[in-house]
Amino acid sequence: MTSDNDDANRPEFTEPQGLGASTEISRAWEHIGAIIVDATLQRRQNYHTTVMPRVLALIEAWPDAATTSGFRRHLESGTLSEVIDWPSPGRLAQVEDITRVFERQGIETVLDLREALGEDPKRGVLRDALGAVRHVSPKTLDYFDTLSGTITGAAATSPGDE
Question: Can you list the domains of the chain with their CATH numbers?
Fold first, then answer.
């Protein structure tokens, strides 16, 4: 199904970085908190007007949440809702659940996440654990690849963009 807003959900483009360079802006983040929040908020939301501004606000407010332990410290403050301007307790609970999965899987950094998503059997174990979180669909599981920089290019669209 398409709508008049489909163009608003397409990734933005930037000037090429040289011959043969991709012109698409990557949605990969070097910030665990940003990856978790992006993956959580993307469901049925406009990326450019709803998700991206909140992820950028998180990075600005919590730069040390680039690691899972740093993100956990901030989550314990109970201010995530204010930082990302998101009142829904369901999505906030999902952020908590995904963070818990990362902690249990020993994922502290984006590099750890990339490695876990790139290696069998770790990939399957992580995807199974994330898939057990409410509202984490197979498309969201694939989106973690994009957000962590495991894949790029045409796959760099959020599940909410379709």
Answer: 29-152 (1.10.340)
- The C-alpha torsion from 130 through 134 and 136 to 138, rounded to 10°, is 90
Give the mean pLDDT per block of 10 residues along the chain (162 residues): 43 38 62 97 94 96 97 96 95 98 97 91 94 95 92 48 48
pLDDT at 7: 44
DSSP the chain: ---TTGGGGSPPB---SSTT---BPP---S-HHHHHHHHHH-TTS-IIIIIHHHHHHHHHH-GGGGSHHHHHHHHTTT-HHHHTT---HHHHHHHHHHHHHHHHTT--SHHHHHHHHHSTTHHHHHHHHHHTSTT--HHHHHHHHHHHTSS-GGG---GGG-
